[in-house]
Amino acid sequence: RARELEMDLHCETNNNDHHTSQISVNKLIVRRGQPFNITLKMAKPFNPDSDQLTMKVVTGKYPSEERGTMSRFGVSDKVEPSPCAIAVWKAELQKNSLPETGMLALTITPPANAPVGEYKLSAGLKAEENELAELFVLFNPWCSEDWVFLPNEVERQEYVMNQHGIIYKGSDQYIHGLTWDFGQFEEDMVQICLKLLDLSRKHKRNPADDVSARCNPIYVGRVVTNMVNKEDTNNGVLVGKWSGNYGFGFPPTHWSGSYAILKQWYTTSFKRVNYGQCWVFAGIMCSVMRLLGIPCRVVTNFQSAHDSNANLIIDKYYGDFLVRPKETDEHVWNFHVWTEGWMRRPDLAEDGRYDGWQALDGTPQELSENVFCCGPAPVSAILKGDVHLKYDVLFVSAEVNADVVSWLVKRDGSKVELFSDTKSVGQHISTKAVGSDERMDITNTYKYTEGGLSQQTDRIISVHSCGGFYSRRVGEPKHSWVCTNKNPGKVFFLLVFKISPLFQVPAEAKVYQKMTFKVNFKNPVNETLTGCTLTVSGSGLVRSEETIKYVFPAGKCAYTGAGFQTLRTNQSFKM
């Protein structure tokens, strides 16, 4: 028997309208609070006055209207949701419908508080019900009713749609940027990110409540901070390691993007990926948040404190003669990287004073509610000193504004305070600027401070040269300048290499066909360089990350891949 109902989801048109066409044009991916159009084809004429078309959407294994994970709705006023329904979908019959032929053009609107995730859509006449389609629902920063609404379109393009970014590393006196490929719209990223939520502790403990709570970006962001690390969950993505021994994996400096890590985790049945440090955790976190529709950016704090006893003080101990100093878990890192997600915080204040950027840290440092996660902590609360607020405002406040107290431990065990440093922690808090590759200093959003990097003297300004990847041609050098100090006894120098274009690509490249490109390189120093790798990745360009390891003898190159190849100075090789 022929199906009585058939549905056309108009995936390409709807996804384009919902800013999800970069994810897929074959699967329907919509954003909550925003209508989308479908066409329903019936085997017989439809009378809007007498016939009752009922539709239903469900998400999760235990859907219910009371939890917002199921909604019954229709094109007739006779179809009423349950009185206790909390996330009600709507359908409207369009004027271009031809009900006498059974062709119904419908506009469907998911509510702005719908849980994000995968939904099944069914429809039927009277008591009949036919499961017709699957769709995905994401957060919507374009919808004013959504808690993640971001009013500025330029910022939405940067913090939701941009697949490339810069993560800042180094020290407060030498800041340099690492280009990062977020790749949030790469193949299978919707499934990867939703699976990450499904494997969380909260979902395993109570799947019905967990899926229902995915309407809340505060909740979702907190779950993601826990799942990107492997510290206390069996299926976390990345193992953190700071010891320098990176056997059975890659060193954190290997990674240049998030997708290779997430894809490896997904395709190996959710086995941990080795290894990462703070900037890698933050890069993964940003990718997942942007895919889900939560505006997100990566933030670096230089001279970042780790306060383990929640008193906003970092204690350093020095031993008197023949006295072993007291050991402590507290320290100040030269830099630490986390993310910020944009969302409302009505749980803290109805007047919106804690809305906006929220600090979220995926690096496992301290337990929060008995799990390794951190945030969301309102940046405005950190600035105002409202350290009692959730989540983890006190901990993040210490990272940017703790005092460092030095103590002398005497032979009798007593302590004498040597010095209290109230200024060094929390320097040049940085993120990539909107719409450009410049560094934006956001220190004043976290703390009241005097001056900034531009007002200080005797600094070495970060200098690097690299191929660009936005509007610039691949291989075109990007330069900044150096300023050295004049302190006697300290000599600073910068060796700048004149770099010719690194990559030569053919004039024509075809999708899904192999492409050969040349890489020209030369070891510019009279020393053998070891442990070097060339990693090639790119959102929408290559299916997976490609890595080749090298040993660079002085003036020559040796390539270890499919066989061993020795290359003379300035000679090229093909990939």
Automatic annotation (TrEMBL):
Pfam families from the UniProt entry: Transglut_core, Transglut_N
GO annotation, biological process: nervous system development; proteolysis
Catalytic activity: L-glutaminyl-[protein] + (R)-noradrenaline = 5-(R)-noradrenalinyl-L-glutamyl-[protein] + NH4(+); L-glutaminyl-[protein] + L-lysyl-[protein] = [protein]-L-lysyl-N(6)-5-L-glutamyl-[protein] + NH4(+); L-glutaminyl-[protein] + serotonin = 5-serotonyl-L-glutamyl-[protein] + NH4(+); L-glutaminyl-[protein] + histamine = 5-histaminyl-L-glutamyl-[protein] + NH4(+)
Keywords: Acyltransferase, Calcium, Cell membrane, Chromosome, Extracellular matrix, GTP-binding, Hydrolase, Membrane, Metal-binding, Mitochondrion, Nucleotide-binding, Nucleus, Protease, Secreted, Transferase
Gene3D superfamilies: Immunoglobulins, Transglutaminase-like
Subcellular location(s) of the protein: Cell membrane; Chromosome; Cytoplasm, Cytosol; Mitochondrion
Gene Ontology cellular component list: chromosome; cytosol; mitochondrion; nucleus; plasma membrane
Protein name: Protein-glutamine gamma-glutamyltransferase 2
Species: Poecilia reticulata (Guppy)
